[in-house]
Amino acid sequence: MKKMYNTDRWKRIYNDKQLDHIYAIWLYTYGGAQDIKTFREYIEEYEDDPDKYGNCPCYICQSGEY
Q1: Domain spans of the chain?
Q2: How far is the CA of 28 from the CAs of 8, 11, 64, in angstroms?
Q3: More exposed terminus of the chain, fewer Cβ within 10 Å: N or C?
Q4: What are 13-58's pLDDT values in tens digits?
Q5: Cα separation of 53 and 36, whole Å?
Q6: What b/e string do you get for 2-28 counting C-beta neighbours within 10 Å, with b at 16 or more?
Q7: Which region holds residue 15: left if phi is over 0, alpha if psi is between -120 and 50, else beta?
Q8: Strand, helix or coil for residue 5
């Protein structure tokens, strides 16, 4: 069974693969520093397409594991 995450602000639903990609981007951008911006805050404000791979600096896109 796939897990889904429903954001409160934009009412978007993300699947596991999309969440992994968004997490990798957040990790690259903030280095996991939750005192700057938590992952929950980041995902609430995320506006890009989580299914667009290959052009971002995250480890998923750079390693080609998408």
Answers
A1: 5-63
A2: 24, 25, 16
A3: N
A4: 888 888 989 999 999 889 878 888 888 888 888 888 888 888 888 8
A5: 25
A6: eeeeeeeeeeeebeeebbbbbbbbbbb
A7: beta
A8: strand
